[in-house]
Amino acid sequence: MHVTKPLSSRIRSISESATLKVSEKAKALRTAGRPVISYSAGEPNFPTPAHVVEAAAAAAHDPRNHHYTPTSGLPELKAAIVAKTARDSGVALEPSQVIVTNGGKQAVYEAFAALVEVGDEVLVPAPYWTTYPEAIKLAGGVPVPVLGDVSHDFKITPEQLEAAVTERTSVLLFVSPSNPTGTVYTSEETAAIAQWAADHDLWVLTDEIYQNLTYDGVQATSIASAVPGAEQRTVLVNGVAKSYAMTGWRVGWLAGPQQVVKAVSNLQSHLTSNVSNVSQVAATAALTGPQDAVAAMRAAFDVRRRTMVTELGKIPGVQVPVPHGAFYVYPDVTGLLGRTWAGRTPQTTLELADLLLDELNVAVVPGEAFGVGGTLRLSYSLSDEALLEGLQRLQGLFLQG
């Protein structure tokens, strides 16, 4: 007999990751022989630096790494994270204020699980990464989008936050540089938001996974050090995935106030225990070893970023804010909607993305995935040749009319 009881309503409410869905569809079509160029992937196309791979290979042969280790992470990696956080975020930590997680997603999930009571509201600047609202809902919370406007580089302000806050608000999410927009807040803008959160006695969760991928001399200011005392209410999420081309190694971390980290460690002790020891050794090598490969990747991303902005800007009806961080461009394409292209008239960016994949074999992620229609996210973490070829396909369609 079949079981007739339904699955958990909380699990049934979770949506599939739109970015992974588009990326997987593009890969499947490419495997089937279609010449698909995908701008959907949120990962560098570079290999992990050689010295990191070598450290992992040596670690795999060391019997010490064949057994359970502390849930919160290897001491040497936690020490490296403490040093990185002091250097790049301006926050002094003790190793006990760090827990190593299976990628940034686990850190995000565990942070919301620790900070959110059932029914609590979390202010989420939009456009937002697709995982944030789902992790909030899994914790029993209510995501409250606060919409940034293209004319202001999709940044949100204390005035907008003030209009959205209620007595049920418990957490503010802050992400700079942003996925999907590439927006980087100035130090003054970051400080104003940090002070607003302090005035309202809110927790702040900041995702700093892209903090080392900035351009044009722009620096990402951590909200945890933007105003005095901010570190006491801020939980930082980070990892090696983006800056070191280590998405597959699955190493992230959560850092912040002692009581939060202790609670998260208790949760992780039942959820996954320790992260793979080999991956942790690799992450330690990434953080403490030569940074030449990171600088080279950032320089290559910068060239691609400029190409994307220039070439997309040639298409009438496309508005392209210049991103100063991460590896995405996030154009407003409302000027392309409601018009006929290749015999079809897309009314939404969902429909436009389908058209581009069907007619041009170009995969992009529609803005609806990030809470804002009328936009597209295009990653420039693909080869220079593929990047330019895809842009030429887009121009061939939209410039001909």
Question: Would you kindly provide a written description of the structure presented here, covering whatever features stand out?
Answer:
With about 400 residues, this protein is an alpha/beta fold. It has two domains: about 10-45 and about 295-400, Aspartate Aminotransferase, domain 1 (Alpha-Beta Complex); about 50-290, Aspartate Aminotransferase, domain 2, CATH 3.40.640.10. The protein has 13 helices and twelve strands. The strands form three sheets. A seven-stranded mixed β-sheet has the order 2-8-7-6-5-3-4, sandwiched between helices. Strand 3, helix 6 and strand 4 (about 140-145) form a beta-alpha-beta unit. The relative contact order is 0.17. The model has no long low-confidence stretch (mean pLDDT about 95).
Structural class: alpha/beta
| CATH evolutionary superfamily of the largest domain | Type I PLP-dependent aspartate aminotransferase-like (Major domain)
> What can be said about the biggest beta sheet?
7 strands, mixed
Count of individual beta strands: 12
Principal-axes geometry comes out as globular
- Helix proportion: 25-40%
CATH topology of the largest domain: Aspartate Aminotransferase, domain 2
Distance between the termini: 58 Å
Strand order of the largest sheet: 2-8-7-6-5-3-4
Which CATH class of the largest domain?
Alpha Beta
The appropriate CATH architecture of the largest domain is 3-Layer(aba) Sandwich
Count of helix runs:
13
Order of helices and strands: HHEHHEHEHEHEHEEEHHHEHEEEH
Nearest-angstrom radius of gyration?
21 Å
Query: How would you state the average pLDDT, rounded?
Result: 95
Residue fraction in strands: 5-15%
